Amino acid sequence: MLPSLNHIILTVALQALREGNIHHCETMGFTYDEMNLLGCLSINDLITLSQAPLPLVDITIRHDVLQKLLASSHEENRRQEQLNRAVRLGGSIALMNRYFGVGSRETCARRRLLGVSVPNGRTPIPDEETDAAIWHQWQKISGRKH
């Protein structure tokens, strides 16, 4: 059975009171008299109030805020997908930092999470023969002659 909204509100308020966070209870809308009464509730009183058929609070949907949050959520999901794709394609730590603002720690964690292995150290510099072959291939692909 899911806890009722009343139960959740009362539990949060009692926890805040127990921690001495009266300001939190004020922002929830409780008066000082109500806070004093809540602090004196027995377990039976709490159960009775929690099971009351009338809700203690009214909830309204702020549609403008919901729309902004949904858009923000979609953008963040898209960003995460782009980050993961860049990692899967072998994006370097420098690239991840420059284009996504992600540090080496997060890049390495993503690599581990996605099962991407990257050899340690610098990328080896090709020998002269391999370098020439790469250059000729590039000329052929790009249609350039130098």
From TrEMBL:
Domain of life: Bacteria
InterPro entries: DUF2857 (IPR021364)
Official protein name in the record: Protein of uncharacterized function (DUF2857)
Lineage, opening ranks: Bacteria, Pseudomonadati, Pseudomonadota, Gammaproteobacteria, Enterobacterales
